[in-house]
Amino acid sequence: MHNWIALFNEQIRETTWLQWLAVIFGVAEVLLARSNNIWLYPVGIAGIVISIYLLIDVQLYAESALNLYYLVMSLYGWIYWIKKKNEPPVKIAWSNRKEWVISLLIVFLGWFILFVLLKKFTPSNVPVWDAWVSSTAWAGMWLLARRKIENWMFLNVSNLFAVPLLFYKGLPLFAMLTLFLFFVAFWGFFEWKKILKKEKSGSMVHPIISA
Questions:
Q1: What is the pLDDT of residue 210?
Q2: Which is the most buried residue in 48, 123, 160, 184, by most CB within 10 A?
Q3: pLDDT of amino acid 203
Q4: Domain edges within the chain
């Protein structure tokens, strides 16, 4: 236990202000998503751009590529939410059968492709686990972009496996952050269900998106 505390303290001391900024943007993005606020996308994009810069700086090129995916999905989600000028944003909804099929394809096909790439082209000693964390996050991001409630389920599967993985890799600070995001996502799932119920009952007035 003492070694873990010492490692945790060391991680905090070695964290730069730019890394903290990326973490702050990441937390803000999840909180905004939980509140069904469209500002989650510009805030998230800012955090992703900083993260890509930091990952390239330490030569983690594969992780940089993964963040590029998040960047593309965030831009897609932002456009999808807004749709057209002076129209209400896309409403929260449950996924239909087609969206479930696409989500599961992203998870399992994505996992297989990532596993092969990690196994053949990187020195990773956790290709199965690493690929699984990424592929479930991919599916969650796609569903979040479409305002589907199940996005929280897929993101939390990713978070659940990411926490021990980050501890194993000697990154307790980021493991604790991911644990926090796990509880936020759990909270977000029920918050979105509540919003959907209000929308269906007609008790919620949707704001008009303006340019």
A1: 39
A2: 48
A3: 53
A4: 15-201
Torsion angle in degrees (nearest 10) through CA of 149, 182, 25, 21: -170
The reported pLDDT for the residue numbered 108 is: 96
Could you give the CA distance from residue 76 to residue 105 in angstroms, rounded to a whole number?
19
Residue whose C-alpha is closest to residue 172's, from 2, 3, 11? 11
- The two tokens of residue 70 are 């998040």
Phi, psi for residue 188 in degrees, rounded to 5: -60, -35
Q: Rounded distance, CA 174 to CA 7, Å?
A: 12
Determine the pLDDT at residue 39: 87
Residues 191 and 147 sit within 8 Å (Cβ to Cβ): no
CA-CA distance, 62 to 81, in Å (whole number)?
Answer: 29
User: Which residues are CB-contacts of 117 (< 8 A; sequence separation ≥ 6)?
Assistant: 62
If DSSP codes are grouped into helix, strand and coil, which group holds residue 135?
Answer: helix
Tokens of 61: 């090129």
Contact predicate 88/208, CB 8 Å: yes
> In angstroms, rounded to a whole number, what is the distance separating the alpha carbons of residues 136 and 112?
12
Residue 139 burial class via C-beta count within 10 angstroms: exposed 0-12, middle 13-18, buried 19 and up? buried
Distance CA 187, CA 177 (A): 15
How many C-beta atoms lie closer than 10 Å to residue 6's C-beta? 10
The stretches in the chain having pLDDT less than 50 are 204-211
pLDDT of residue 211: 37
Q: What spatial distance separates the first Cα and last Cα of the chain, rounded to whole Å?
A: 53
